[in-house]
């Protein structure tokens, strides 16, 4: 039987009204029970339509909880949604859109929602006051591992995490606009309308599935002569037709960063039963806006009275939304309790829909007369100076106790009323979260009894009720003006000011902060402030009695404001309660910090495509496929797959490396150096930029020559090195270490943009643009000569540390004469797309000349024999140029460079610093271990500090023995000394030598 023909389960659905599609009926399941809904329903509205108010259990006490709100601030109705054989926990039922076959499950209960054994915590609540975890679980000590921690971990959290890998994919998009409008209520729509009329590029986003905000629930208001909802539809149609406008429903602005950078999370397919597999589940928009208009609205505050958390107790605005937007009644006998005008509109709408409103209990002694008259016309009983002092009902509210407020502030009983729903409102709190994230400072407004946006720090402006503007006409006018001002500031375009005419939607007045007075024992009742974390009014008062004076300390002691709504419902009431307990004015108590994300955001949205293989992409050199075919062995170096060594026949790594070293020193070796970072530095101030950036002098370097470069951080420690070649007066080719490429490039950009913006320089990463093939050894010149055109390779014309542009095998080429082996060496840079071809051409010549291909292990051995350091191996973040024996690389006459001032710090010039040295074990066949400590004594006393440690250790085929590099205290002064490397099998004596252990004269390098 189709859902269309089944008997309706929607006992609380009105026969007409709402914005849902009644022509179709959907089936969904909640805790296994089949229910019905219509397209346009949220899970929350569908559950209420099916007569379901109990949707979960509270975190600490496991009390029955029901739907409280109709928006993203919902603290109670957190559910798990089953899809793809797994569940996503902690989704807010107020934002989950119903689709055919939706499967939802309640959370934080066992064995069932109706009967939860965890509810025993409610009876034991005197044992769990605020901050109890700071005072318990101390004794006996042995219980922590076996009893306390397992129990705490089992009880922690809400919902069950997914067990399977996420089957969905996520997208990321960068966008620029003139004006970003956040929120599509009356202020946001007006702002987008006026800004787009100037021709400005506008993005309008809203977290709800349907744009319009509070206007979608308005019944008696008109704008430009149209009912509010019709005006919304017409305005959205107008905006959609404009090419300069992007509309983003289901999109939450969750983070406001520096320079008007705003992050948006768009829910793309969560509302679809069978989404297109090509579509992402969610999409992150990273928006850079010239101007931002925040039209985030305001949040209605709950009233803090005893037992204010039972299912069936909702915010008044939520009850009105469910009625007018979804055609659902929250109850048959509804009590409205309030301290402000807006809740009366909910009572009137319910009464007009045929719902019995048993009473309006307004805590004000004299509610506005026109509201009382409107209630009388509908036959609604009005109780002035009246508060709710308690409720009853096990799984849903069934009765409310009323109290009469006396002039002295005391309360006397005013009887009780039978009801199955209570709508409450203690006023409205402007949403200042995004403004606060923009680094703006909120200010207290006594008239509104609220914190409002102060001066703008970034190029933003708040509009509408989020800045304390109330009443439909005033909000529309404020939003329209904000859009005009933002567009003019962004583009300079202006237009003749307009105004939107509106009727109805009067400004709400009144409100109350804090816990309501009542006539019951305050120490025994629970009046909830933060629903999700089970924080009560007496918890906040206890925190003050325990010595918590700062609101931030109170927040952490009680966990109020730490729920998924980040205190949007609880903060102001908690502040007022703390203010009363401290005896200090509320503004003096302060306000907690609003952190991103604005509302919970999935990890998938943040991760985007960075998952699986794409989380840490594998980068391959041009020779990769050739190496695979030849049986080369790879190692991971950062993201790169680099050839480690090339075994032949039955060779193990040690035999293969020994052969590669021997052949390279005696004939020629070929090495893929494409992984080195490469950065093009260009501009008339390029030499000046490098002069300030690196330790070396650069202005005097002539075109066609290279220089070894050392980079320091601002503390004076080596963080990278490389070779820089000057191609022309205004162009340099900079190389970096493989692992440092991105870091050095980012550091260059940072200094160019923040420290030296006056320099006429631009930099470009070219790491991926060039394949680099190193040819090293006595026969290197003979190998490359047949392919080189336009470059004289003679020693006189092209000496060591030269660079020239020419052609190689007919391809454009940058040829460097540099060496990391101590042999005659060249590095051939050709376009990466031709790298594999050039690699094979060179290899044929290498083989012809009796050479071989070598890997990174051989490269390490050859460079260690020459005493060449590797960043991160001979340096550990505390090594200075002098420590590394690179004092010669510092421009002594330079006015400044990064880290220069730090080099004169007393601790960096003091005696006893560790310095790079060479080590030769007394036993030439004894191999040292990298990282092993070095001491003066073979058996040092316990607690005696080491002199240093081994940084690199290898077998040297050229020297016929083991060698090592190390950093040792006063190392250069210890040349010739015998030190010890303590090991489990006994100390290994080593002789300290100069780090250059092979060809110290450099004759082979200059061959």
Description:
This protein has about 1000 residues and is of the alpha+beta class. About 20% of the residues lie in helices and about 30% in strands. The chain contains 23 helices and 52 strands. The strands form 13 sheets. Strands 8, 9, 12, 13, 14, 15 and 28 form a 7-stranded mixed sheet that branches. β5 and β6 form a beta hairpin. α4 (about 185-195) runs parallel beside α5 (about 230-240), α4 (about 185-195) packs parallel to α10 (about 470-490) and α11 (about 535-545) packs across α13 (about 570-580). The protein is elongated. The chain starts with about 25 loop residues before the first strand and ends in a 14-residue tail after the last strand. About 50% of the residues are buried. The model has no long low-confidence stretch (mean pLDDT about 95).
Task: Briefly characterize the structure.
With 1007 residues, this protein is an alpha+beta fold. The chain has 23 helices and 52 strands.
Task: List descriptors.
7-stranded mixed sheet; 1007 residues; alpha+beta; 28% strand; 22% helix
Secondary structure elements and their pairing?
Layout: E1 26-30, E2 33-37, H1 43-49, E3 54-57, E4 64-66, E5 78-83, E6 86-92, E7 102-105, H2 120-123, H3 143-155, E8 170-182, H4 186-197, E9 202-205, E10 222-223, E11 226-227, H5 228-241, E12 245-248, E13 251-257, E14 261-267, E15 282-294, E16 298-300, E17 313-315, H6 316-326, E18 333-338, H7 342-352, E19 356-362, H8 369-377, E20 382-384, E21 386-392, E22 399-405, E23 411-418, E24 421-425, E25 428-430, H9 433-437, E26 442-445, E27 450-453, E28 460-462, H10 472-491, E29 502-503, E30 528-530, E31 535-536, H11 537-545, H12 551-558, H13 571-582, H14 586-589, H15 603-607, E32 619-620, H16 624-629, E33 633-637, E34 640-645, H17 653-666, E35 669-672, E36 677-682, H18 686-693, E37 706-712, E38 718-728, E39 731-736, H19 741-755, E40 762-765, E41 770-776, H20 780-784, E42 788-789, E43 802-808, E44 811-817, E45 825-831, H21 835-848, E46 852-853, H22 856-865, H23 906-909, E47 914-921, E48 933-934, E49 948-956, E50 961-969, E51 978-981, E52 988-993
Helix pairs in contact: 4-5, 4-10, 6-7, 11-13, 17-22
């Amino acid at each position: 039987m189709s859902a269309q023909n089944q008997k309706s389960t929607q006992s609380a659905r009105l026969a007409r009204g709402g914005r849902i599609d009644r022509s179709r009926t959907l089936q969904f399941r909640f805790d296994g029970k089949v229910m019905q809904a219509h397209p346009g329903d949220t899970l929350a509205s569908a559950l209420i339509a099916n007569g379901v108010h109990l949707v979960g259990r509270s975190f600490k006490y496991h009390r029955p909880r029901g739907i409280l709100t109709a928006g993203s601030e919902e603290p109670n109705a957190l559910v798990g949604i089953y899809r793809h054989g797994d569940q996503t926990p902690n989704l807010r039922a107020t934002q989950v859109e119903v689709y055919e076959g939706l499967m939802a499950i309640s959370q934080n209960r066992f064995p069932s929602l109706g009967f939860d054994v965890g509810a025993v915590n409610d009876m034991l609540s005197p044992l769990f006051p605020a901050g109890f975890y700071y005072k318990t679980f101390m004794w006996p000590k042995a219980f922590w591992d076996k009893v306390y921690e397992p129990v705490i971990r089992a009880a922690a959290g809400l919902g069950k995490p997914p067990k399977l890998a996420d089957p969905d994919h996520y997208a990321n998009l960068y966008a620029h606009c003139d004006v970003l409008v956040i929120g599509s209520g009356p202020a946001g729509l007006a702002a987008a309308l006026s800004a787009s009329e100037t021709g400005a590029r506008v993005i309008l986003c809203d977290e709800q599935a349907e744009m319009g905000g509070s206007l979608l629930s308005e019944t008696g208001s008109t704008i430009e002569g149209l009912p509010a909802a019709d005006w919304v539809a017409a305005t959205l149609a107008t905006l959609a037709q404009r090419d300069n406008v992007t509309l983003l429903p289901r999109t939450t602005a969750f983070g406001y960063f520096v320079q008007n950078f705003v992050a948006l999370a768009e829910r793309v397919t969560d509302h679809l039963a069978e989404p297109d597999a090509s579509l992402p589940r969610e999409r992150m928009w990273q928006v850079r806006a010239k101007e931002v208009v925040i039209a985030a609205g305001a949040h209605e505050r709950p009233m803090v009275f005893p037992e204010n958390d039972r299912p069936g107790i909702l915010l008044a605005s939520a009850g009105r939304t469910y009625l007018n937007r979804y055609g659902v009644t929250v109850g048959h006998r509804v009590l409205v309790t309030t301290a402000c005008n807006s809740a009366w509109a909910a009572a009137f709408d319910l009464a007009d829909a045929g719902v019995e409103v048993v009473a309006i209990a307004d805590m004000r002694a004299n509610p506005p007369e026109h509201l009382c008259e409107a209630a009388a016309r509908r036959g609604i009983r009005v109780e002035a100076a009246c508060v709710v002092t308690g409720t009853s009902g096990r799984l849903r509210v069934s009765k409310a106790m009323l109290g009469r407020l006396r002039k002295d502030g005391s309360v006397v009983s005013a009887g009780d009323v039978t009801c199955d729903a209570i709508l409450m409102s203690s006023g409205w709190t402007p949403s200042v979260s995004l403004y606060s994230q923009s680094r703006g400072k909120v200010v207290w407004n006594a008239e509104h009894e609220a914190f409002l946006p102060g001066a703008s720090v970034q190029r933003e402006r708040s509009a509408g009720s989020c800045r304390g503007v109330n009443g439909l006409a005033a909000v529309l006018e404020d939003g329209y003006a904000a859009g005009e001002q933002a567009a003019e500031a962004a583009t300079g375009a202006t237009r003749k000011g307009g105004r939107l005419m509106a009727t109805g939607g009067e400004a709400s007045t009144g409100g109350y902060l804090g816990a309501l007075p009542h006539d019951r024992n305050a120490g025994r009742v629970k009046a909830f402030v933060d629903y999700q974390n089970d924080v009560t009014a007496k918890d906040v008062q206890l925190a003050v009695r325990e010595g918590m004076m700062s609101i931030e300390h109170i927040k952490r002691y009680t966990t109020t404001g730490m729920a998924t709504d980040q205190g949007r419902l609880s903060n102001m009431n908690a502040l007022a309660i703390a203010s009363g307990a401290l005896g200090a004015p509320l503004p003096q108590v302060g306000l907690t910090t609003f952190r991103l994300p604005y509302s919970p955001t999935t990890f998938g949205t943040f991760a985007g495509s960075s998952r699986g293989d794409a989380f840490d992409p594998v980068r391959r050199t041009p020779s990769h496929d050739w190496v695979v075919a030849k049986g080369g062995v790879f190692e991971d170096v950062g993201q790169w797959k680099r050839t480690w060594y090339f075994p032949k026949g039955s060779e193990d790594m040690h035999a293969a490396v020994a052969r590669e070293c021997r052949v390279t020193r005696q004939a020629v070796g070929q090495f893929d150096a494409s992984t080195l970072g490469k950065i093009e530095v260009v501009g008339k101030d390029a030499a000046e930029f490098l002069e300030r950036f690196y330790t070396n002098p650069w202005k005097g370097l002539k075109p066609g020559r290279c220089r070894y470069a050392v980079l320091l951080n601002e503390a004076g420690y080596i963080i990278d090195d490389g070779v820089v070649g000057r191609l022309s007066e205004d162009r340099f080719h900079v190389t970096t270490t493989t692992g440092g490429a991105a870091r050095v490039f980012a550091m260059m950009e940072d200094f160019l943009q923040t420290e030296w913006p006056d320099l006429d320089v631009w930099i470009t990463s070219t790491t991926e643009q060039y394949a680099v093939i190193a040819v090293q050894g006595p026969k290197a010149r003979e190998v490359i000569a047949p392919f080189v055109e336009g470059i004289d390779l003679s020693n006189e014309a092209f000496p060591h540390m030269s660079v020239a542009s020419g052609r190689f095998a007919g391809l454009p080429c940058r040829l460097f004469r540099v060496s990391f082996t101590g042999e005659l060496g060249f590095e051939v840079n050709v376009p990466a797309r031709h790298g594999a071809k050039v690699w094979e051409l060179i290899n044929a010549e290498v083989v012809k000349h009796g050479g071989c291909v070598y890997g990174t292990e051989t490269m390490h051995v050859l460079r260690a024999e020459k005493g060449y350091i590797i960043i991160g191996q001979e340096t550990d973040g505390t090594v200075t140029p002098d420590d590394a024996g690179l004092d010669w690389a510092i421009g002594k006459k330079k006015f400044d460079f990064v880290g220069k001032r730090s080099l004169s710090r007393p601790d960096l010039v003091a005696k006893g610093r560790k310095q790079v040295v060479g080590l030769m074990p007394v036993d030439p066949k004894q191999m040292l271990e990298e990282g092993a400590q070095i001491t003066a004594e073979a058996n040092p006393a316990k607690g005696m500090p080491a002199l240093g440690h081994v940084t690199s250790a290898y077998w040297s085929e050229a020297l016929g023995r083991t060698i090592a590099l190390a950093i040792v205290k006063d190392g250069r002064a210890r040349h010739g000394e015998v030190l010890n490397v303590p090991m489990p099998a006994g100390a290994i004596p080593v002789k300290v030598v100069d780090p250059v252990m092979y060809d110290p004269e450099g004759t082979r390098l200059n061959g």
